[in-house]
Amino acid sequence: MIKWLEEKQQDINYITIPEWQEEGIANLFTLRHSGNSEGVFASLNMALHVGDNAEDVINNRKKVLDICDLNFANLVCCEQVHSDSICIVDSAGRGKGATCFKEAIKGTDALITSIPNLPLATFYADCFPIYFYDKVHRVIAIAHSGWKGTIKDIGVKTVAKMISHFNCSVNDIQVFIGPGIQNCCFEINKGLAKEVLYKFPHFKGILLAREKGFLWDLPNTNRQALLKIGIKAENIIMCPLCTSCHTDKFFSYRKENGNTGRMAAIISLRY
Question: Is 128 a domain residue?
Fold first, then answer.
């Protein structure tokens, strides 16, 4: 069974799928410590758009890419606007958003590539990273899925794009849903809960009623959506760690009232 683990290199703790690493897929999800950022961004803030010192963020990114033995100059980032827009990244995308947020791929929340040594990165403080890997066609992807992305089926649409553009098969695609705000902490109002029920009428156990609202299980919603389109249950890996509960490990937009840093989800083909 495929499993995630927390590992450490050069004082940086991160979450990874060792089996993917062994198959030439560099992958990690950073934790918040052992970086250069200060104040509310302390210390491994990986995002350029949150008001942190850009030089500190770039140094943080270089440090993380170095432990992966990946070329920082090739790093590809997207704007992340809570959309369902997906970009196929080719060689022309190398370096987009690596050192300047304005140069990130516009209006996009998911990236797909089949090109080696082209690391894809998205950034998080409660939303969920969804990693994709087709071991037959050697295609990888990363999707940024908060509640808006979940409603818009960005995970399902990323799979559809992998199938249409690269001839991938749902039978071969493995998925890792990383850390994010779990249902213990993600409370929503009744209006949004009604929208969730309308969108996912047959999904089980994704909403739990509270006195003034509902708790929404975002990772389980994404999992059931992927199962519905044919992704095998044994090919979906879940990390149950809650970013809001564990601000000792993670940045949390909700817990820290929006004034915080971001973790990075990175994936790259080595060959």
Answer: yes
